[in-house]
Structure formats: C-alpha cells, structure tokens
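Sample intake sheet
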Amino acid sequence: MERQPIKRHETIVEFSREHHFGLLLCWKIRHGIRHQIAPERIAPYVLHFFDADLKAHFDKEEKLLFDKLPDDPLIIQAVGEHGEIYALINRISSGDKGYEVLNHFADKLDAHIRFEERTLFNHLQSILSEAELMEVSHHNEAKTCDIDEGWSDHFWKIK
C-alpha cells in the first residue's frame, strides 16, 4: 500500500519542514553508529542540534498549537514525548554519550515526529477552527539559518 502525501494546512507547514530536519538528525545519528563513528563525536552534534533547533521547535509547538487543546489526549501524549526527549538530552549532556542512549534518542525522536505528522497534525487540522489555525501563522516564522553552519565535524559524511 502506497502512502499518499498528507495535505497540511498552510499554518502547520513550517512545523512539518522543521520535522524534516529532525528526521535528518535521526539519520545522521544512525549512520554514524552504523559506521562506528565514536559516540563522543556524535553526541556533541546532537546537543548542538537540540540547542539550535529542537528546543525552539518544541517550544513553538507547545505555545502555538498544543496550548489550544491542553486536555486533548493526543496533545498530552505529544507533550509527554517532548519530556522524554528532554530527559534523553539531559542524559547525553550529563555524560551518557554511548551508542545505546544515542540510538534510543534517534528512535524516540523519529517515532515522535512520525506521530505528529501522521496523527496529531491531522487531528489538529480536523478540530481547530480556521481562525485558530490562522493564529498560528502570525507567530510561526520560517527558519533561515543553517544548523550545520560553523559545525566542523560532519561525521555523517563518510568517504
């Protein structure tokens, strides 16, 4: 069965674009692990990416989308998953930089993004009013910076 592209409301499109970069992070982590790149090289990039991208992305989702339906079970799940990802980042930043935690982080982030894309965003689009969705667009600006700009260790570019 072939998946059909999901029609995303224009005000949620930027969140989906940002998800692409989160999935790319998961790929980089897994690619590094598969090629036995030292976890001490992978972990700093994960922390950098989190600080430069994911932290603000989670904050925008929670303030612009999730706050509209705080008691919704799917929102509660998404916020809980954000908390689990923060906990993994705390483990990594506290020195737990092994393959196991990095792989667990990649799996958790990947599953979370796919949940938001396949389930949560469709749910929000179906129950939020057009006016509520349009409120999001006034606050959700596209990112213009390159996360990898200035990052010298591109461990995922294995020759």
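Comment: Residues 4 and 118 are 11 Å apart (CA to CA). The first helix runs from residue 13 to 34.
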